[in-house]
Amino acid sequence: MSSRSPLRQPPWLPPPPDDTYYADSKEITKRVLDTIFNNLSKCPDLNFGLLNVGDPDTRSCIRRRLAHLLPHDNYQYTYSQIAMWNALMDSPMALSNRDLQKVVPMKDYQHPLTLSGDIVPNSRGFFVYSWTMSVSEFDIFIEYLQTEERGFYQLIDWCGPIHGGRLTPDYRFTIRYVGSCAMSEWPNGPTENIYSETEDARSGNLAAFLMAILCKFPTVAATYQCHLIQYVTTLMVDKEGLHDLIHSVLIEFFGTPFVLNRHPKNKASKFFTERQSMVTSLNLRFDGAALKGRLDCPPSMFLKLRNHFKRIKDYLDATQSPDATGTNSGVFRFDDAKCAALVGQSMPQYYKGNRPIMIITGQSMHINDYIHGRPFSFSRDPGNQLVSQLLSHIGNRDLREMCVEPFAYYCLAPWPQHENLRDAIEFMWDYFKIVKPPLVGYQGNYLYYYVDEIGEPIRRQMGEHHFIHVSLMEPSRCRYGVEFIDGLACNFMHTSFVNAMLVADKVMQVLDDYEAIDREMDTLARQNSGSTQGSDPVRREQYVGNNSEAVCSLAMRLYEDFASTQAGGEFRRQFVEDTRVLRTEAQELALFIH
């Protein structure tokens, strides 16, 4: 065929201005499909029901589903169209939506879908959210994530084409996310419920990305677009698992790791189950006994906590500008309902009528949990759900069924906007002064804690109150990284969390023995007064009503004694080994953005 022969252009694509024939489009289709099949075969945890990516029939099905997105043997394509497909495979973030639509049929959300005979009733489709960001904004974006102690592992992959291409500061690239919805919901469903999409199993880092751009990058948020991928649908009733399969295929088509999506990982439960016997041997009673023996939080404590969160609300009302969240100001306002949810989950469960045992502080709420005012027990955040899985393996209890935690959960920064974490930390210290817990588990990170510090109990003091601090690994650090490292991090998170529960168990044991606490208070009074002939009356009086130092001292002693037992020794060896292995690998491969 002559290079000037008329084109047989696919009718689902816009007519190109160039009519030059190009014959090698078959290689594009083969390359794309081979890449998709190869990448999905490396994800053994993916569950597509009755379908197997390695099966020839399944692969034929995928080819048919992508027929409108790839070059077809019956049609010809121009040089510019082939260039667009190559760009999608090589540097998808550099491909604008305008250029992408030259080869991928997509309908903008501003143009409602006209149902025709080509659309199957009761079907589901797929759409693409997109935002554009300049190179200079990307540099600020990385700095913001570091300040906020948030890590996007794929930023390492993004940095390559963005910083390695010698692009100008104002050059804009495109960030995409692939979602799905019922065809009957288009376009209102995807555009009005974008935050609900963060709870999808394949949402990946969408929630953290939305939080970042809504807080600090309104210019990026303003570039939002939503397009329906045409001609790719599945049935609402899906017994074979085809919908999940096609969703993962499209994620690969648009370029993992350059989209916000991530394939779901189900290995956490496997890791926890493999170590169930070790946890059982510890005979922890913290989870069950704390719930069984707990008393309601005193009314005076409830009032103090309510006033605490009211101060946060007043602070936000005074410091946030009216246009801080743009069109989402009403959605993200720290209103009374959200305040009440936070008060509820931060109320400590009292043991023996006078003391909360443990408080866990998390970095922030999941964005959709915040919008709907959902407490920790009902969180849709994958990180919080990972903690719930840990608890279920420790105490065989389902938090969703109990609607209660064996500990108070305090969100360090529940609101989506603040100048920096310094303000949030000040409020956290105020909370500790109110509750005075003997044990605090903080979900820390590698920016402030080294691996060999995480999970180890450390005695600390705040004013006259003493407590035991155990820094825990942020659960999100165990997701969407290198597979091998994720497994090591998950193992380490498990043992460090169990270690915190072990300390809590010893705190309970101490609180059961009032006489031992009194004796320890006398001993500490004598030591602090320098007297060996009895406690100094003035010094002893300072301990009345404040036995926190005695409780922490006894709990740490019991914890150390337990390590000399067979069960304690085996657990301690496992903890040390998990620490060593992760620390060794972390030195060779950067886990997070620094």
Total DSSP E strands: 12
Report the radius of gyration as a whole number of Å. Answer: 28 Å
Biggest β-sheet strands, sense, barrel: 5 strands, mixed
> What form results from the Cα inertia axes?
elongated
Helix/strand-derived category reads alpha/beta
Task: Report the sheet-strand fraction.
Answer: 5-15%
Q: Class of the largest domain, according to the CATH hierarchy?
A: Alpha Beta
Number of helices: 25
**Looking at the chains present, what oligomeric state does this protein adopt?**
single chain
Descriptive overview:
This protein is of the alpha/beta class and 594 residues long. It has 2 domains: 93-264, no CATH class; 268-512 and 563-588, Uracil-DNA Glycosylase, subunit E, CATH 3.40.470. It has 25 helices and 12 strands. The longest helix is centred in the last third of the chain and has 29 residues, at 483-511.
Key features?
four-stranded antiparallel sheet, alpha/beta, five-stranded mixed sheet, elongated
Blueprint (SSEs and pairs):
Elements: H1 26-41, H2 56-65, H3 79-90, H4 97-100, E1 106-108, E2 123-134, H5 135-147, H6 155-163, E3 172-182, H7 188-192, H8 206-216, H9 218-221, E4 225-235, H10 242-253, H11 267-274, H12 276-281, H13 286-293, E5 294-295, H14 299-319, H15 329-332, H16 336-346, E6 350-351, E7 355-356, E8 358-362, H17 367-372, H18 382-395, H19 399-402, E9 408-411, H20 421-435, E10 439-444, E11 457-462, E12 465-473, H21 483-511, H22 514-529, H23 537-541, H24 548-562, H25 566-588
Parallel strand pairs: 8-9, 8-10, 10-12
Antiparallel strand pairs: 1-4, 2-3, 2-4, 5-6, 6-7, 11-12
